[in-house]
Amino acid sequence: MNAPTAMPIIPLIPENAPFNAEQRAWLSGFLAGALALDNAGVTALSPGDAPAMAAAGEEDEAPWHDPAMPIDERMTLAEGKPLARRMMAAMAQQDCGQCGSDCATYSKAIAEQAEERLNLCAPGGKETARMLKKLIEESGGGATSPEERAAKPAPVEKNGAPGYSRTAPVEASFVARRRLNGEGSEKITNHIEIDLGASGLAYEVGDSLGVFAQNDPALVDAVLAAIDAPADFPIGGRALRDVLIEDVSLGTAPDMLFQFISYLTGGSRRLCAQALSRGEDPDGDAASLDVLGALEKFAPLRPDPEAFVESLEPLQPRLYSISSSPRAHAGRVTLTIDTVRYRIGQRDRHGVASTWFADRLPEGSPLRIYVQKAHGFSLPPSNETPIIMVGPGTGVAPFRAFLQERLAQKAAGGAWLFFGHQREASDFFYREELEGFTAAGALTRLSTAWSRDGEQKVYVQDRMREAGAELWAWLDRGAHFYICGDAKRMARDVEQTLCDIAAEHGGLASDAAKAFIAGLKKSGRYQADVY
Description:
The protein is 37% helix and 16% strand.
């Protein structure tokens, strides 16, 4: 066997890296810990390890905290870890707050049997819920007694203050919607205004708003027809139609529904339903089956309406990044929402909350909301600190709030926004406001990218590369870096671009550049709000 080839020793963080002496010392230690020394030299971590290690925290030094990583890869990396760590790896790894907490807290609660709900990880969806169930079964766990659960209240329900928990929403009023796209846009994106009224809610920039939306009545009527049930069938003292509109999810068909359907059918249809309940895909259409699609696939069915409702999952609240500052909009909160519409087969599908806001919610209507406090997504403590914001599309929402806040505080640190979309003429959200921020000095630099305006697609990461030297200079001044938007593609590309800029303009080797990004995250200078 040939002797291992010695690898070059990775240099420590150079003097021109944008850190003070204390931060540089910490990063040097981080690099030493991120590299395993042996007699042959230094073995580098695999790609993505260093950023993931910092993002996951000291207790969780493993590279599975990556929203772009497939679940099977995350589970492989988590093999041999404690149950709570493996459950965390099963989640979508966005710390988005949709569950009411964060990935680590939610997974710990499930592992300790303080939380029975396995479907709160909305980004992870059905595959996360299935994996959590599998992990519980493999560990010999299961439901504890009500007394035991009462002794360990679920962390997602810890904050029961009205208006600050998904379990304790308050009433507000829908004020208005305004379409942000111009003529010729392929999108429908609305600016939404909500009056907090007497709710007493207070929020800060960086927070999200949880909204309890309602299902489309037309979809509900189609479901009622599919199960051949009367709209006024009593369910717990309420009409079945109202329960289907307000309480249960009619999106992706849950495993329990397929299991229920298997009891109502026979032969090959039963085998097919059983296979779908186990996560298999016998006909190649599992990904397209919502509740109505499942009912139509196995029609005709006439289930007991109450049993049918019990086979469905609760309708989850939707979280949206708040796009306003309370300093600029006292007593109000605004959102920036893409309307989700697409077609599968012969049916149009609609996003629940996005089309509710766009089409079905009359102005002045009451709605239930709550504030989800930000998990590590906030402005720097000092107004003298520069900020760099990357938010294409609706990702600009929290940065509109940031700029309103910085304008009100007369922040002098400088602000740079990278914004992109399809077409400048029709998709330049908040253009007049952003130009106003520039004129007032709250926005120092605005870099835009339009993917459909020319023969070559241009994205925010392309603009970052073009301005790499200046971007590195801003980091050298201590700038905080923020990103908001799609977790699986855009956010990963932006992080890689920043890593490349650190290598090219900071003179860092590849692994040192990754550790540099990890250091930014560890110190709170790199913050993400991704979905």
